[in-house]
Amino acid sequence: MSLQNFMNKAMSAWMSQEGPDSDIVLSSRIRLARNMEQFKFPTVSTNEESQEVLNFFETTYANKTFQEIGQLELLKMNDMQPIQKRVLVEKHLISPNLADNSIYGGCLLSENEEVSIMLNEEDHIRIQCLFPGFQLEEALDMANKLDDWIEEEVDYAFDERRGYLTSCPTNVGTGLRASVMMHLPALVLTQKVNRIIPAINQLGLVVRGIYGEGSEAIGNIFQISNQITLGKSEKDIVEDLISVVQQLITQERATREALYNSSQNQLEDRVYRSFGTLTYSRIIESNETAKCLSDVRLGIDLGIIKDISRNILNELMILTQPGFLQQYFGGPLRPNERDVRRAALIRERLNLEMERNKWMEDDES
Description:
It catalyses: L-arginyl-[protein] + ATP = N(omega)-phospho-L-arginyl-[protein] + ADP + H(+). By secondary structure, the chain is an alpha+beta fold.
């Protein structure tokens, strides 16, 4: 399969489309945790109960169409190969916990992959809406519509005083996790991020790496999300997060401008060296890839590198992950083989971009 065809099939909307403030915010996500009243929570349920939950959702919702998101396809974890599940994790469509530990787990996935509903993870139901750019309110609106749709057929575990009941006490209440994925290279380069993160934590928010809890902030990409789910409404939680993200956007843009004005030659040198590494390397590790992609994306956003889409960062951060590499190249790869194939894939993707630009220039002339 050609890389272009593979990308056409593999790219989720948040990876290939731009949204508001997408020079800083790569994606916005809303996740709602829910449980069915008549069953024990997945962490203590029997195999028979877990299978019954999965059967219910297959019968009730698989291949059903919901409003503008289209048809929902049920993916059963037990029917999938490890590489297939790893790809879904790398695309942020399911959690590592669902991929690794849930024999009776499943995922209802929309056609455009903006919606994924995880089944029998830590909770019976985890509704996730993932939008490109800064669209938290839009993602919340979609999640609430899906929540209402499911509740037409499901009795949720709910307490009048505590709210929605979940396996983990930290999700009790609204069951809401709101998060944004942000690219903050200037705040990292100037070390301002070291002061900002503790301040964000004091506001009841948490800063994590690209794959959430326990992951590194590779490529200067951070996830900012709420910690508190109890005692606040969904609207208040999202508004608080929006306020902090707007401040981060302002600070990152101002720091980029100041950095460019004070150190233009050094910054351009850094950007072009990273661009050269991606363009010509024959072997490249994942951490170096992330660093170079971050530099190039910053160069694109500042106008240092022209005629290359900024979405190339979103795409290549995912396409160069182990699961995607192995899926594209057709089978398991040892770490050193992945480094060689990663470099080849990056070169091919950049060549596609250059060919596209040449075609557009020829078409205009």
